[in-house]
């Protein structure tokens, strides 16, 4: 086994860059797709590697974003020698000055209208005042959160995840969520309402992403908010905390359970394994968010398997948060979510798993194939069949085993695939039909085998499949192949004919002979 080169040791993988900078993996991949920041190296395992020069370029990108440049403009500023940055900055200043003038003009008109219209415009003014009040509260909450995070006794890595709370996750971000929470409070929304539950779900997702799925950090922040948020902001925290507690169906934690949740982050993997086993054995549903949070990034294989077992023990309650984890920008999180869902085997999750068949991470895609096969949901058949003939050999093997789980239900659809325009798809379909062993496929496979215009590899796959099928139709198909002009196909057919004519001396038959004294 070869070690890393000196260059690889100095370079960082995409996940490490995300953790150190506070950017999301999705953002870094977006920069890569645009050609704005392409990692300059690859590891021996084909992982993207960012060099110190790449990180310097990333610093320039973020600095230029901060002054209002768009991503295409940033690309030109960094790569086009003829690019006039000063002119672009002058243009942006002009746009901002024009926007400020427009806003000031709008304020003046609204003030004038407020004095004219007694009915209607009062509501407008109150709405504007409410919006400004909420905006101020959001800004103060963000500032307080940053200050509170700075007082916690966290590791350097943990602090790096909390440096930029404004960073969005997918289509959500803290400012938008806080605005919605404070607006809900202004309108008297109950923490038990569906609207509050939706806010709690978003809050939990952002906390999970901001803290890198570390429950100890999330709990420390929660305690700090409870104790140190200013009075005017404390009601927002109380509202969301109550909504989140309702979201957990009123489940409460004992002191022992809280200690076990804390132990999930213990540096000793044996302690983490014991905590997962204890929580799973007791089916502590209140610990489910912590178990899934740890599962999404746990580095040790044996701990992950015990965390998976504990989550599976929670039954259907584990499915919704696992479906949320499928949206994670981190392939490790998606992989663990798919793996765990495959063990729960809830058919209702099949529709959410189907898009992951095309996941950019090969391991996640293969695991999604396996999971859908385990569930046996007929609705997943169409999605799985789209992968027949995939260029990756391991993916083809996984897909064949998955489709085999559907039995005769998959046979007519695979027979249709024998007419696919691409030969690799026809070859793979024939291979899977042999694996299924359904004699109903024999006539069509025989037709493919005897078609001299068909690609050789497809005919060979059809012959091999016939050799695995029972019944007279398959016997006839193999026998007809012994007269083919192609010498290789003819030789294989002759061997298969001889094997099929040989009596089966099975272990069961030998045992019966022994019992009878034969």
From TrEMBL:
User: Pfam family example for this protein?
Assistant: HEAT_2
Matches recorded under InterPro entries = ARM-like, ARM-type_fold, DNA-bd_dom_put_sf, MerR-type_HTH_dom, PBS_lyase_HEAT
Residue ranges of every copy of the HTH merR-type domain listed in the record: 11-80
Matching PANTHER family, A to Z? DEOXYHYPUSINE HYDROXYLASE, PBS LYASE HEAT-LIKE PROTEIN
What name appears for this protein in its UniProt entry? HEAT repeat domain-containing protein
Q: Which organism is it from?
A: Deinococcus rhizophilus
